[in-house]
Amino acid sequence: MLNRILAVNFGGIGDEILFLPALWSLKKEYPDAHITLALESRAKGIQDLSDIIDEVMLVDIKTKNKYSELIKFIFKAMLGNYDVIITSGGNQMMSVISAATLINRRIGFDTGSLSRALLTDTVPLNKNQYAAKMYHDLVTPLTKQVTELPIIDINIKQKIPNSVLIHPGVSKMSRIKGIIKTINGYEWAQLIDLLQEAGKHVMIAGGPDDADCIKEIEEYTKHKDYENLYGKTSNLTELAELISSAEKFVCSDSAPLHIAVALGVKTYVFFGPTDDKKLIPQNENVIALKNNCTCPDKPCLWEKRSISCMELSCLKYDFHDIVKIILKN
């Protein structure tokens, strides 16, 4: 019987949403267990979306003080009386960190001989699958329960008839790093105009990182009858509630995508340099919007490149075709 579980998953809010199925399966198997999730500050909002996370432990590994942060984390874990620590990530350093906590049972991905020496349980790291399934593999030594999709806990809103919600943004940090994963504001404006011409009630939303993109949309749209909800959602819960109210949701490869998947909202997501098969479930409720780019490296981001290429031919679309897909499906 497990009473206290420490799960470690560093990344953005999207990564934490994709990690939720693993935590749900643990909660089904051990309903009385206290689950602590160690994560970065930028993803702490996940606790507002899920009742199964009893506590979050903040570890800011991307600051200049990352080593002191990790040392503080190790001491907190040592003193936490945990029965098991579960660490995600393909870096062998995670095995070292896990072992340093002195927690009796240590589970992580098999990343080589070091991980097998330091962990009590290793599982194969299979990146060629939906990321939620990859994370879920980590809990197979503890349970046979299977949770395939993220689940979030919010108040589901009534559907707005004939509505299409647009969330154009991606994180500002990714753009600064040269990671371009979606279309620009001018192109979003074209799509919004065409959806309005097709008679759809279009709503747009976004967070602080999306200010420039929203400004471009406001400048370049010909039809101004859309409902501009930018700035009206102040946290992840409010954004999730808004997404739940839409009949259809169009977005980029970013955290709102994973919220929509968890809510079961019909979702259309632009994919260019990233691999849709690893980031969305392969079902009819989530449709990847891709073009006929013949680039031999596609999808390249994370697999072959750490930043986007200059051509971005994989992000060139005929938006009349995109609208047909949204209206048809």
Count of separate structural domains: 2
**Under the CATH scheme, which architecture of the largest domain would be assigned?**
3-Layer(aba) Sandwich
Strand order of the largest sheet: 3-2-1-4-5-6
Helix-strand category:
alpha/beta
Q: Spans with pLDDT under 50 lasting ≥5 residues? A: none
Portion of residues within helices: 25-40%
- One letter per element, helices H and strands E, the order comes to EHEHEHEHEHEHEHHEHEHEHEHEH
Assembly type: single chain
Which fold name fills CATH's third level, the topology of the largest domain? Rossmann fold
- Rounded to the nearest angstrom, the distance between the terminal CA atoms is 46 Å
Average pLDDT, rounded to a whole number, is: 92
Q: Shape from CA axes?
A: globular
Strand content: 15-25%
Largest sheet: number of strands, sense, barrel closure: 6 strands, parallel
CATH secondary-structure class of the largest domain: Alpha Beta
* Total strand segments: 12
Tell me the CATH superfamily of the largest domain: Glycogen Phosphorylase B
How large is the radius of gyration? 21 Å
> What is the count of helical runs?
13
Brief write-up:
The protein has 329 residues and is α/β, with parallel strands linked by helices. It has helices at 13-29, 46-49, 66-78, 93-100, 113-118, 131-136, 172-176, 185-197, 211-220, 236-245, 255-263, 276-279, 319-328, and strands at residues 4-8, 34-39, 55-58, 84-87, 105-110, 121-124, 163-167, 201-204, 227-228, 248-251, 266-270, 286-289.
